[in-house]
Amino acid sequence: MASQPFFQTLPATIEWRDGDLLLLDQTRLPHEIVVENVADVQAVWRAIRELRVRGAPAIGVAAAYGLCIAMRDATALPVAQFRAELEAHANWLETARPTAVNLSWGVRRMLRHARDTDASDAASLYRALVEEAKRIHAEDQSLCEGIGEHGMPLIREGSGVLTHCNAGALATTGIGTATAPIYAAHRAGIGFKVYADETRPLLQGARLTAFELQQAGVDVTLIMDSAAASIMSQGLVDVVIVGTDRVAANGDFANKIGTLGLAIAAHHYGIPFYVACPSSTLDLHTASGARIEIEERDAHEVTHLAGRSIAPDAMQARNPAFDVTPHMLVSGFVTERGIVRAPFERSLRTLFAAQGNAA
Ligand code: MRU
């Protein structure tokens, strides 16, 4: 069984094994290790929608393999019909979640590859799709390493680092995005402390970030989301590093709900605020954060905790899964090609003009 970097005891977030797609069920962590062999494309859609696989880069990789699952029993079809079915599955798979651009990035890249492949039969087109999904998977791992290399200097001996949600190894197929500088600094023997926000309502910080950092031997302390500003006010945080699900052309970005409040608090206390992301999370077609679609999830996730109601019966609740932080609160984007600083409109476009998501 393939395992995730650092976690010899944990299965990989995503594994392609002999034509099967295996997903580590992130809703069961940290106390249960369950791997799902995803039967069909409907199950891939549900796994994304229900957060069994989550985190922007991991969603992109899962979607790429998801299209292989969609087409694996269609290799006897005439090639034109195979292509038409592929396109229909791709359009549908993209609807699983709206905010993480990596989902449509992965799906669109697979479609582009299919279009560019001159195949005379469906079986060879299917093989080409599997190879492309494996490339997306391998690239994701090296993008994380690049982010780690460029972000490591942000973490100095004795620093306090605050992060939100899980932009960790579990959200990718490598060493994570926000956690990449953390793991790189830890590997380099630097001593520092991480504060992990618990991340209401689904507790990705408590269940996933705290878990994976602890497994890796990083000094991590779990805090309530509502404690973050107070921890900052005490001088315990030298840098905030978060992940993102979509970065607009002007540098506004979407991330897990609560990120905006952290950015405002960090600005108030003069704490550098960095956003770690691979180029697959850039959406230079979207001009600003105002145009990013924010996923609104079921109110039940807010009114219930671990299956039990914590609010009056029939309580109304709002559950926006993400918020948008304006670019003026961002010190820099830590990417696989280096740290991108303001003015973001120009710097992002210059560095990533050749990427698939660039306009
Ligand atoms: O709803 P989730 O758990 O998919 O939200 C994930 C996040 O907000 C992460 O910070 C983001 O995807 C960055 S992933 C490296």
UniProtKB/TrEMBL annotation:
Which Gene3D superfamilies has this protein been placed in? Answer: translation initiation factor eif-2b, domain 1, Translation initiation factor eif-2b, domain 2
Q: Which pathway or pathways does this protein act in?
A: Amino-acid biosynthesis; L-methionine biosynthesis via salvage pathway; L-methionine from S-methyl-5-thio-alpha-D-ribose 1-phosphate: step 1/6
Asked if the Swiss-Prot or TrEMBL record annotates the protein with the keyword Cell membrane, the reply is no
**Which reaction does this chain catalyze?**
5-(methylsulfanyl)-alpha-D-ribose 1-phosphate = 5-(methylsulfanyl)-D-ribulose 1-phosphate; 5-deoxy-alpha-D-ribose 1-phosphate = 5-deoxy-D-ribulose 1-phosphate
Provide the active-site residues from the annotation. D245
List the keywords (alphabetical).
Amino-acid biosynthesis, Isomerase, Methionine biosynthesis
Biological function: Catalyzes the interconversion of methylthioribose-1-phosphate (MTR-1-P) into methylthioribulose-1-phosphate (MTRu-1-P). Also catalyzes the interconversion of 5-deoxyribose 1-phosphate and 5-deoxyribulose 1-phosphate. Part of a bifunctional DHAP-shunt salvage pathway for SAM by-products.
Family assignment?
Belongs to the EIF-2B alpha/beta/delta subunits family. MtnA subfamily.
Record's protein name:
Methylthioribose-1-phosphate isomerase
Organism of provenance: Caballeronia fortuita
